TrEMBL record:
Keywords: Disulfide bond, Signal. InterPro entries: S_locus_glycoprot_dom. Residues 68-99 are annotated as: Disordered. It comes from Carya illinoinensis (Pecan). This is S-locus glycoprotein domain-containing protein.
């Protein structure tokens, strides 16, 4: 990958490895790459003049890119359970029969 704004990227994907790396081509640039608690991969650069970290890039770019567990697709519905299954399980008659 070509240098972009003082960063040189490398990505390898083959039968032995999948790796991403970067190197900084400007000795005065300070950068950090983190994965935050919500699963976003974020690159920050240090802005000396303001003495703060600036969000330079993040992924995923769109909310739809986020992976969600099946139970999170719709508040009460799981891919593995239907409303019918859920109502049967919570039915008092069903509980008495199984006890």
């Amino acid at each position: 990958m070509a240098p972009l704004n003082n960063l040189k990227f490398s990505f390898v994907m083959d039968e032995h490895e999948v790796t991403y790396s970067f190197s900084i081509t400007n000795a005065f640039l300070i950068s950090r790459l983190i994965m935050n608690s919500t699963g976003y991969l974020q690159r920050f650069t240090w802005i000396e003049s303001s003495q703060e970290w600036n969000l330079y890039w993040e992924a995923p770019k769109d909310q739809c890119d986020n992976y969600k567990e099946p139970r999170q697709l719709n508040g009460n519905i799981s891919i593995t359970k239907t409303r019918r299954d859920s109502s049967r399980q919570s039915s008092p008659q069903r509980r008495r029969i199984s006890n």
